[in-house]
Write a structure and sequence with these properties.
By secondary structure, this protein is of the alpha/beta class. The chain has one domain: P-loop containing nucleotide triphosphate hydrolases (Rossmann fold), CATH 3.40.50. The protein has helices spanning about 55-60, 90-100, 120-130, 135-145, 165-175, 195-210, 220-230, 245-250, 255-265, 270-275, and strands at about 5-20, 25-40, 45-50, 70-75, 80, 85-90, 100-105, 180-185, 215-220, 230-235, 240-245, 315, 320. It has an 8-stranded mixed sheet with strand order 7-8-9-3-10-11-13-12, sandwiched between helices. Strands 2-1-4-5-6 form a 5-stranded antiparallel sheet. Strand 12 (about 315) and strand 13 form a beta hairpin. Helix 3 (about 120-130) runs parallel beside helix 5 and helix 5 (about 165-175) packs parallel to helix 6.
């Protein structure tokens, strides 16, 4: 389809566990396991789940910032990698695509170089990619700062002179500097004060609409995702358990894990609050995930088949997919 900008098929990422003086590999942390989805041009797709479920690793592996263990990713008609066919995009071609794919990091304190002023931080990519000469890039950096609701005079200052919200605006300006068509927002408001989160979120929403950006929005805040995203994928222990349009997911959650997540959201009345679903036990280790359904060790609806067979992500209504034997 012409409007599909990103196709992810069977994506997996394993991190080796090394021990001993010779650093032998004794196992793997299976951070992402067999993740598949596609995104339409201009869509905002949300990834939600508990901390450590593989959301950020998925985003970074798609961008080729992490080396994949399995699967393939096709962006805008270009195959970035296909592990099964031992195919990886040529570095020269990848350099050209880097302008099209950018990321907004979670921590605005760690993601900005403290030795560079704001003008250098934002203009560096434009100069490296030959888009502008340095003086022109600095002028463009001023425009981007104003677009992100920061004064143009900020280009002469250093990151330590700004608040967290201002630093994240600088990070957003840097991500927009190369005029990308696809953005990964890796929990871009999680490290900010609550009073600032709404401002940054509204800024992102305006920029996405104005610049026609396709966005993979990673978050653990269900309220934010419901407000911000067109479609949502729910992850548990490295895999998708449910995927649907935002409205359908919140109106008719089909997977027990999704139901538990939604029940944890603050409610308006004490009666609604009493309906909260409390999950049993701890999240299993991704180094040794359970057999069958990965959620069955904590599921209140589990049956014998759940521990024996891995459920496939199947469509239960148009556009609504769930990986559960009982859904």
């Amino acid at each position: 389809m012409d409007d599909i900008i990103l196709e992810v098929n069977g994506l997996s990422k394993n991190f080796p566990i090394r021990k001993g003086i010779f650093s032998r590999t004794v196992g793997y942390v299976r951070a992402v396991s067999d993740v598949s989805f596609s995104m339409r041009r201009g869509e905002i797709f949300g990834l939600v789940g508990e901390s450590g479920c593989g959301k950020s690793t998925t985003g970074r592996t798609i961008l080729n910032l992490l080396t994949p263990s399995a699967g393939s990713v096709v962006f805008n008609g270009h195959e970035l990698f296909n592990v099964e066919r031992k195919r990886r995009i040529d570095p020269t071609e990848m350099r050209g695509l880097r302008k099209e794919m950018q990321i907004i990091f979670q921590d605005p304190y760690a993601s900005l170089d403290p030795r560079m002023n704001v003008g250098a931080i934002i203009s560096e990519g434009m100069v490296k990619h030959g888009m502008y000469r340095r003086a022109e890039a600095l002028e463009r950096a001023k425009e981007l700062l104003e677009l992100c609701e920061m004064p143009a005079a900020s280009i002469h200052k250093y990151p330590h002179e700004f608040s967290g919200g201002q630093r994240q605006r600088i990070g957003i300006a840097r991500a927009l500097a190369l005029e990308p068509s696809f953005i990964v927002g890796d929990e871009p408001i999680a490290a900010l004060d609550v009073s600032v989160q709404a401002q940054v979120l509204m800024l992102l929403q305006d920029l996405i609409a104005k610049l026609s950006l396709t966005t993979l929005f990673i978050s653990h805040d269900l309220g934010v995702v419901r407000y911000f995203c067109d479609r949502i994928g729910v992850m548990y222990l490295g895999s998708f358990v449910e995927m649907a349009d935002s409205e359908a997911l919140f109106a008719r959650p089909a997977h027990p894990y999704t139901q538990a997540l939604l029940s944890s959201m603050p409610k308006n009345t004490p009666d609604e609050q009493k309906q909260k679903i409390i999950l049993e036990g701890d999240v299993p280790s991704p180094a040794n995930p359970p057999s069958g359904c990965r959620f069955h060790t904590r599921c209140r609806c589990r049956q014998e088949i759940c521990s024996q067979q891995t459920p496939l992500l199947r469509e239960i209504e148009p556009g609504h997919c769930v990986a559960c034997h009982l859904a």
